[in-house]
Amino acid sequence: MAVLRLFLLFLMAPVLVAQAVRVRRTTPRLPGATGPIEGTLGTGRPLRLTVIGESTVDGVGALTHMDALTGQLALGLARAYPDREVQWHALGITGASARVVLDELVPRVREADVVVVVLGVNDTLELHSAARYRRDLLAIVVEVRRRAGDVPVVLAGVPPLASFPSLPRPLRDLLGARSVALDQAARGLTRLPGVTHIPLAPGLLRPGMFAADRFHPGPIGYRAWAAALSEGLPIVTDGWHPGEVARPS
């Protein structure tokens, strides 16, 4: 069966390459979010949120970071913990794979109370293996913990590219299968204490959720994604131990 799949992939290669080139040429290139990449919301004891990753952390598809994933996550935390000052920090590079994030962004991570890692789309597009993706994610978790402290690390689920409206078939099917494999690899890291994986629900990828490029989330998509992530976001509280998930009181 594996040999048959490889043979079919070989036969489809010219079509896949042509589709990939056409998508790259015709997809509008949107800028990252403008404005500060960090800020504070509310007053009280600090609650430090760091979000690190690819273009969705860079805020592509939103005007400012408050409209994008990090800002929406911070707003959710501020509402859930009104007695805390939420200090948020967005570290994103458009087009970054997990390896690029490890090399270029992780060294900029500061002490935090929770770190959210948002990756997988570019590793999917570059057809990286699940083993490589898992290895790079593991290195990110280790290095983040070395810099931020022994805090919860949340791995946002890899978006299922089979639901991206800008991708034609069969390219969409190939990338969809690859994104599922990478997401499963990320989920395997939850065996580590304090590591949480929150999958991206397919319902969040409805047409109205996308930006003008039909590839990145728009503000509505970011808001919905942040709300879904917030439901499973583990927060450090007094006496927290790795693996514990704290809920708002």
UniProtKB/TrEMBL annotation:
Protein keywords: Hydrolase
GO molecular function, one term: phosphatidylcholine lysophospholipase activity
Positions of the SGNH hydrolase-type esterase domain: 51-224
Listed transmembrane segments: none
Name of the protein in question: SGNH/GDSL hydrolase family protein
Organism whose genome encodes this protein: Amycolatopsis dendrobii
